[in-house]
Structures are given as structure tokens and as C-alpha cells.
Design a protein that fits this description.
Length: 107
């Protein structure tokens, strides 16, 4: 459902144009993903020399971090859509394939 909803959103409300090469669309989504990752860090007490570094996140901080994680997920989904993945089961299979490789490297 998430993939379908995001695909529909991109078709209706954004510059999702199939005439733009997939590499260019991937570059845009990957850049946006990096920006969202920076916004996650920005929402955290990341300065080790500050007094609040080791304190638990406030409710407001948690809400902001979750918001940025969701924004990040949108751009990850966009990357999958650009690559032609329309089925979450296919994405899950790619995840399992990658996870299997990671697990064999550790042994």
C-alpha cells in the first residue's frame, strides 16, 4: 500500500516525469535522503561536549526524529519506485538477499 500511495503521489503532485533519466531521478531522491538524514541528526543532541548529549530525548525531539525518519522513508520508497519495484515482496526479497550476504561475511 505504501508503494502504491507514494507512486500515485509522485505521479499527481511532483516532478515525477518518466522522460527524466532514472539516474537523474535517483540522484535527486538520494540527495533528498541525505538531507533528511542530516535533519535527523540535527534533531538529536549530537554535540558530545554539550551537557544534554547523554540525556534521553524529549517527546518533542522524538516526534521530530520520527517525522524525519518518515521523510527519509519516502525517498527510499522513491528510489525503489524509480528502479521499477512496485511490489513490497520484491523489496523484502532484496532485503533478505542483502542480509544473507552480511551474515555470511561475519562468519
Amino acid at each position: 500500500k505504501m508503494l502504491d500511495d507514494q507512486d500515485l503521489f509522485q505521479l499527481q503532485f511532483s516532478h515525477w516525469d518518466e522522460s527524466i533519466p532514472e539516474g537523474e531521478r535517483l540522484e535527486y531522491s538520494a540527495t533528498q535522503l541525505m538531507v533528511e538524514a542530516a535533519e535527523i541528526i540535527q534533531a538529536l543532541p549530537w554535540k558530545k561536549h554539550k551537557k544534554n548529549y547523554h540525556t534521553p530525548l524529549s517527546e518533542e525531539q522524538r516526534e521530530k526524529v520520527v517525522e524525519e525518519i518518515v521523510d527519509s522513508l519516502i525517498f527510499v520508497i522513491n528510489c525503489f519506485l524509480i528502479m521499477g519495484y512496485k511490489d513490497s515482496e520484491d523489496i523484502w526479497n532484496e532485503f533478505k538477499k542483502k542480509y544473507a550476504v552480511i551474515n555470511t561475511k561475519d562468519k
